Amino acid sequence: MNPGNATAPVGARGPRSDVAFPFRADRRGRTAHATHGEHVHDLIEQLLFTSPGERVMRPDFGCGLLDLVFAPNSPELISTLELSVQAALQRWLGDLIEVTALDLVSEDHSVRVYLSYAVRATGTRRDDVFEGRAAA
Question: What residues does the IraD/Gp25-like domain cover (predicted)?
Answer without folding.
Answer: 38-122
